[in-house]
Every structure is written in C-alpha cells, then in structure tokens.
Amino acid sequence: MAGYLLHHIIRFGRTLRAAGVPITPGQIVAFIRALEWIPLEDRELFYHAARCTLVCRREDLETFDRVFEWFWRNPLMGGQLPPGLLSTAPGPIRRQENRPRPAEVGHPPAPEPRSENPEAPPVILADRAMTYSPIEILRRKPFERFSEEEIQRVRRLMARLRWQISERETRRLRPGPRGEHLDLRRTLRRSMRHYGEWVRLLWRTHKRKPRPLVVLCDISGSMERYARMLLHFLHALSHTRRHVETFVFGTRLTRITRCLHHRDLDEALREVSRTVVDWSGGTRIGECLHVFNRDWGRRVLGRGAVVMIISDGWDRGDVELLGREMERLQKSCYRLIWLNPLLGIPGYQPLTRGMQAALPYIDDFLPVHNLASLEQLAAHLERLPSRRSARRSGLARPVPSGEPE
C-alpha cells in the first residue's frame, strides 16, 4: 500500500471507535484486503469498501458518513473528533464523480469524497506530499550512486532481509506423517494396543537441514565502486545465517569469515581492512579458485553447499585455468551462482574472456547492483530444489533485474 495510507486507515478505525462505531481489528484487516481488489483512484469504490467492511449496524451509517468526510479532509488531523461533529443535523452525503487525474509513479491518488454542496472544494483523502516514501527509489538505485545518508538507510534495509535457503534432505530418518520408509518398530509397538492388529502404519521421513553457504567476493580495482556495499551485504548475510563462509579475492584469496563475526559493522570492516592486503589491485580469478579448491574445498563444500561468486568477470590471469577450476568447483558444490553487478546495466553482454570461460559452468547468472537484486537473490535461494537435479549444459540464462524468473 502506497506511502502512509495504511497508517491513515488504522487511525481512521480508531477515530470511528472514538465516535461510538464498534470497530474490530478484523474489520480493519478486511478493509485493507478489500483495497487490494479495487483501484485506489476510484473514489466511489474506496468509500463503499470502507462502508461495507467497517459498518455492521444501520444506526451507525450516519455517524460513519460524517466521520469519513471529516477525517479524510486531512488524515493528519484524525484522532480527536471536533465538538459538534456528530450533533449536526443528518443529511445525505453525495459522492463526487470520478475525474481522471494523472497518477504519480508508485503513489496512486486516494479517493476524494465530496459534500452535497456542489460549490464546495473537493475533499482530499490523503496528502500526497505526506505519503512520499524513498524506499522504492533506494530499491532501484544502483549501489555506486548512493550518498552517505542513503548508504546508512540501505544498511538498515539489508539487515531486515531474511535469507532462507532451501533445506537439504539428510540420510538420517525421523518419524513423519507420511514418508518413503515404513517404521516397522513403531508400527509393531503401536499394534500391541490393538491385540497385534496393524490398525495404522507409521512412517519415517528424511531429516532436513539448512545448506551451508559459501561466498567468494571480488575486491579488485574494477569492483572498487561496489566493494563497500557488497561488504555491508556480506556482513548482514553472515549475521542472518549460521553456516556462512566468506572469502574475498583479487590477486590472492583471503578468508574473512571471522572478521565478519563482529556485531558492529564498522569494527568488522576495520578488521577486514587489516586482514586483506590486495584491495583494488589486479584480478586472477583462476589462481584464486585453484587455491580455494585445493585448500578449502573439502572443508566448506560438504553437506550440499551453495557457492556464490560475486565478480564482474574481468580477469588478467590464465583463462584456461579459470575454466578448469570452475568445472571442478561446480562438481564439488550443490549449486554455483555467479552474481555480476554489470548485469543490471541495460544491454550488457558477458563478452570478457573471464566470463566466457566461466559461463558454461554457472548454474545461475544473476545481477547484484541494487537492493531489488538482493531481494531477487533471496527469493531465488528460497526456491532452490531440495534435491540435486541434472546439471544444465550450455550457458546460464541471465535473469534481468526486476523481472520474475
């Protein structure tokens, strides 16, 4: 719901209750759900949706009409009823005919009731100047264009994201309502209550556990304008999930998992800056992946791990080595996801040598250039299949930012 309209609706319900109209929280929820099925620019439908969901007694109709007209003249004044509002002689309230008005992007115009006096000015239900919200703009704005104040806002929004990766099935079994394995021991024990008759079969199903997540982030010179926001993202991700291993690479590979364990973001970033020595340098993705597969692969890629590589694909190393290490990494993990901040640029094509060598072994090719792309990534991780499917052959299909998969 656009802007502060939801807040105004709740205040409107409290005002009706103060006027003597019995309003329950369920009626407020019903009114809000009804607005999802009507265009907000239709003033007549808005009025009737409120009347049908918030009024249950005939004797409350006149009170509702007067409070409705008074409240939506200026929603910010709602709360205390002016003296004499309900004692005025009752009279019919006519609705203003719908007149087309250019709608603002992201903030549809609210309904406008009108009194019976045709010369009276139209009543504005919501002050659009007070319903502005910068969240939608921040969701679509690229990371490299953020100001310092916007960075602080996005940090708080990142902390609210919840990362729920699809769980994996383990080999261990547990009692379940229905499963693939018959629990013969519990079935026989339960049958003793019925003189040995198998009245009900009991089953066992596989236990489910969360998948580990491994992130390798490029911090070379070409990724410098994205590095700060990506570190904020990695810090929020590390404190949302338990099993997260984080590495950064440029000309060498560095593990920063322990650095990001600090609850305070600034302290975590200072620890990362002291640990990493190849900031904004060259890029040797193949050599860094070789070190990761040799030294860390068996430690962190067990139990169906999901691997995310964050890089623009610019590489100055051996391209053939990059292809071999990508193939080895894909075979060792459950899912290999490549996040490219340049993928959010209209018309971008992965034509660099590094991307061309890596694409045949990427399962998912996604953008990571704004907050909306992070929300898209969270939804994608939640929809991953619980079982390993057949590996896709050929190039990964890029998913444009802001479009459903």
UniProtKB/TrEMBL annotation:
<protein>
    <recommendedName>
        <fullName>VWFA domain-containing protein</fullName>
    </recommendedName>
</protein>
<dbReference type="InterPro" id="IPR008912">
    <property type="entry name" value="Uncharacterised_CoxE"/>
</dbReference>
<feature type="compositionally biased region" description="Basic and acidic residues">
    <location>
        <begin position="94"/>
        <end position="104"/>
    </location>
</feature>
<dbReference type="Pfam" id="PF05762">
    <property type="entry name" value="VWA_CoxE"/>
</dbReference>
<dbReference type="InterPro" id="IPR002035">
    <property type="entry name" value="VWF_A"/>
</dbReference>
<feature type="region of interest" description="Disordered">
    <location>
        <begin position="82"/>
        <end position="120"/>
    </location>
</feature>
<dbReference type="InterPro" id="IPR011195">
    <property type="entry name" value="UCP010256"/>
</dbReference>
<dbReference type="InterPro" id="IPR036465">
    <property type="entry name" value="vWFA_dom_sf"/>
</dbReference>
<feature type="domain" description="VWFA">
    <location>
        <begin position="210"/>
        <end position="386"/>
    </location>
</feature>
